[in-house]
């Protein structure tokens, strides 16, 4: 037989389980909840009648939900005794009240307020991931919820995030709430923000230092086999060699061949303004990225910073050769119009990709031999020119 306190502790443990919270707070079909109290055994009734009386009295004092009683006969008793058998809770409010914990009541009140001010797209995330909003003022969370419904891919149009004043937030708002905003946008756009990064997804100017991986493709060209630098440092520091290969994704490092006089820079995303630094003017620069709208947008931005940049393996023929097996749906496309900076055939390829159901071919799915051949051909051509 369980006391109201014991079942309250059980209900509190259930509150801490995110899947249970989501089911019970967002699914009306989860109610009512019936908890078994259990009746005293014949031995307990015979040997500890006072304990049974106290158990019954505790349940008679319960004012939350409905306690279901039944008349139970015991050999040691003169007549049937009314015993509590089940505790029925009809809704989330009764669940929280039955827990009887001030912190849980506070969380529930905040959740009620936030869910009332949130689009249904975000309800499950808010209920499941309390850590995203617990330490933030409710009104700032509501402002973030509202902002997440206003933003869309590429809407920053190259501006810094702090200058998106038309959305009614101050210059530090994105900094304070970037984690929450990114998760909310992930709910709307199928995880695209976590995959690309918030600034890339919004096409915002990256003002903070962005870390990239710098790898010499000729042994000994740098004193390190690989090195992490910020893009701010890249803009200020000349690199050795005659060629720079910019690669969108760090995961492609294992596909890169040895190439004399070449340094590879991986993982810059849309933060490619550093290519405009004067010390890159005498370098032969190649760019290799995903065959999708975002990859081509990054190529376009790179070419705006360094007009002579050459694209590698980013052509319709490559997509058609390997897309049948490896192309996937692009969850969120960069923009509907062809980005400035693409050559004519690249612009046509961009529009072609927008028309495909599966318009994304990630660069790491290209065969290693084909990648090595294309990079070596680029390096050889640049060496002869």
Describe this structure in words.
With 385 residues, the protein is of the alpha/beta class. It is 43% helix and 12% strand. The strands form 2 sheets. Strands 5-4-7-6-8-9 form a 6-stranded mixed β-sheet, sandwiched between helices. Strands 1-3-2 form a 3-stranded antiparallel β-sheet.
Sheet with most strands: strand arrangement: 5-4-7-6-8-9
H/E series = HHEHHEEHHHHHHHEEHEEEHEHHH
Instruction: Please work out how many helical segments DSSP would assign.
Output: 16
How far apart are the first and last residues' alpha carbons, in Å? 88 Å
**Cα-based radius of gyration, to the nearest Å:** 31 Å
> How can the largest sheet be summarized?
6 strands, mixed
Show unreliable segments.
none
Shape: elongated
By DSSP, the count of extended strands is: 9
Strand content: 5-15%
The structure class reads: alpha/beta
Q: Which bin fits the share of residues in helices? A: 40-55%
Mean pLDDT: 91
């Amino acid at each position: 037989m369980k006391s109201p306190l014991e079942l309250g502790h059980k209900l509190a443990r259930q509150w801490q389980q995110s899947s249970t919270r989501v089911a019970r707070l967002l699914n009306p079909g989860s109610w009512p909840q019936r908890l078994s109290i259990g009746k005293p055994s014949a031995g307990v009734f015979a040997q500890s009648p006072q304990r049974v009386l106290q158990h019954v009295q505790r349940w008679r004092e319960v004012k939350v939900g409905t306690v279901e009683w039944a008349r139970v006969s015991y050999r040691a008793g003169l007549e049937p005794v009314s015993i509590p058998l089940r505790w029925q809770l009809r809704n989330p409010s009764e669940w929280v009240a039955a827990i009887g914990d001030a912190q849980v009541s506070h969380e529930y009140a905040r959740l009620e307020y936030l869910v009332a001010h949130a689009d249904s797209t975000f309800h499950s995330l808010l209920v499941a991931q309390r850590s995203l909003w617990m330490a933030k003022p409710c009104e700032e969370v509501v402002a973030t919820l509202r902002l997440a419904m206003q933003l869309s891919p590429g809407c920053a149009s190259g501006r810094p995030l702090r200058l998106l004043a038309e959305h009614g937030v101050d210059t530090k708002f994105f900094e304070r709430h970037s984690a929450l905003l990114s998760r909310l946008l992930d709910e709307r756009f199928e995880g695209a923000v976590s995959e690309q990064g918030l600034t890339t997804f919004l096409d915002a100017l990256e003002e903070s230092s962005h870390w990239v991986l710098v790898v010499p493709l000729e042994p000994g060209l740098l004193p390190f086999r690989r090195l992490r630098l910020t893009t701010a440092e890249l803009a200020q520091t000349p690199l050795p060699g005659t060629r720079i290969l910019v690669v969108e994704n760090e995961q492609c490092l294992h596909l890169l061949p040895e190439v004399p006089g070449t340094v590879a820079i991986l993982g810059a995303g849309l933060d490619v303004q550093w290519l405009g630094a004067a010390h890159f003017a005498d370098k032969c620069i190649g760019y290799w990225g995903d065959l999708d709208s975002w990859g081509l947008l990054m190529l376009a931005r790179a070419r705006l910073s360094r007009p002579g940049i050459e694209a590698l393996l980013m052509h319709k023929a490559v997509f058609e050769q390997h897309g049948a097996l490896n192309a996937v749906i692009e969850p969120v496309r960069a923009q509907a119009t062809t980005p400035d900076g693409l050559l004519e055939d690249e612009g046509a390829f961009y529009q072609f990709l927008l028309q495909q159901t599966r318009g994304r071919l990630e660069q790491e799915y290209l065969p290693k031999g084909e990648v090595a051949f294309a990079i070596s051909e680029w390096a050889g051509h640049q060496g002869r020119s």
